[in-house]
Amino acid sequence: MKIQEFISNYHNHPVLFVGTGLSLRYLENSYSWDSLLQKVASEFNPDPEYYLDIKAEHMEGNAYTYEKIATQLEEDFNQYLKENRHGKFEYINDIFYENMKQGIKISRFKLYLADLLKEIKIKESVQQEIVELKKARKNISSVITTNYDYMIEQMFSFHPLIGNNILLSNPYGSVYKIHGCVSQPEKIIITEKDYEDFNCKYELIRAQLLSLFIHNPIIFIGYNIGDKNIKDILRTIFSYVDYNSEEAKKIRDNFLLIEYEEGSENTEVIEHDIDIEGFETIRINKIKTDNFTAIYQALANLVLPVSAMDIRKVQNVVREICEGGTIEVSITENLDELDNSDKVLVVGSRKTITYEFLTTSEMMSNYFQIIEESNSQLLLLLNKQKIQPSQYFPIYAFSKICPEIENVEVLKEQQRDKIKTIIENPHISCNGNHATPQEVMNDQNIKQTYKTQEIICSMMSGAMDLKQVEIFLKNFEDKKSTDYRKLLCAYDLKNNI
Questions:
Q1: Residues 393 and 480 in one domain
Q2: How many whole angstroms separate alpha carbon 107 and alpha carbon 186?
Q3: Residue 9 within any structural domain of the chain
Q4: What is the pLDDT at residue 381?
Q5: For residue 353, is it within any domain?
Q6: Domain that holds residue 386
Q7: What angle do CA 204, 209, 210 make, to 5 degrees?
Q8: pLDDT of 366-418, one tens digit each?
Q9: Would you say 415 and 492 are in contact if contact means Cβ atoms under 8 Å apart?
Q10: 272 - beta bridge partners?
């Protein structure tokens, strides 16, 4: 079965289970378990045989027990830094002792791991593939990962959950970092003791994740077929679910393993048997390929009755309601019966409910997310809203994503006229020669009230780097302000003509 057809059969939003392979694929500074430990070893002991000796001590059969290797390496690394306070790793010692002053003990080894992995550098060669991944984001409910780095949070804009916070989670829009994160080095799971402690405390987290596995399609990406994490997950599931039940069949049908095969353009999903000690042979679905773009496009094209974005919003409202406070809530089947309230949750038939989601103001605030996800379904709502001639609205990029938007040419003309009026304002003299928005903000010769106009003039003249403008807009504090809307409209126009 082709990947497009396979994913189109999903009836719920899939969960991504992300392993090291995905970070290795996209990041310049990423490591496998082995290469990460080897990197640390080489940094404080240049003798290459030092690490090989440690590996030799912890080889069982044909496999290495990396958690035991990490345990020994941690002991040696910590001792080395203790004895060399002001050496190469002085900055790690500084962090260690600052924490100790506050009564917080964090292994120097883990502090260094966090420092090593904290920076995210995307490979230039995969930029287009990541564009396709971001388009798929709108149909992903959540992500589970064993990786320590920030890559998923940055790409998905999901909320990271670490340690016990997993138990208090919103299943939609979350990144479950089950082996810890560089943001909290003390919670990184890498040594033998870490795994022992994790397994002792894992039962409640296991139950939380099990709910996801039962109710959602699970896509493993960045792992190989023999990976311990996959086998552990399958073992957990079928410890609770009868292998011969209908529920078990549903789970198996929903499982997909994406296995990397260099150079392959394969898009065919096949069945694959996995042998797990103590269980019958477990059959799952697998695709071996280097064509990740086809997978992301299939996910982006998935059409479900309710979007993952909508569910995230509803869950946030429900959580707010459950927490109490002054929120007024009305649950009805008829909007005409409602008075104005802060929050409204409407339950009923499409025949009796008028549904309007996202105002034009909200669309502008979420401009870059909508563009990245190519969310045409959401943009169709523009046909139910009136955009006034006096209103700043970035129609150019939106119309490329959703050709079904009505009155596009009129809206484009409105947008062009608004920007032209700003540029030709006789009361403001613009240079139009600044390379970045920050240059304008730092230019003391430009009055604060004129800085927006100068950025726009510099954009439209071609002097300003649009990538820097994008960063500036994404970090803009007040996305409901007129200045933001002016800048966004100018950026949208310049970037799409």
A1: yes
A2: 7
A3: yes
A4: 85
A5: no
A6: 360-496
A7: 95
A8: 999 899 988 888 898 899 888 999 999 999 999 999 999 999 999 999 999 99
A9: yes
A10: 284
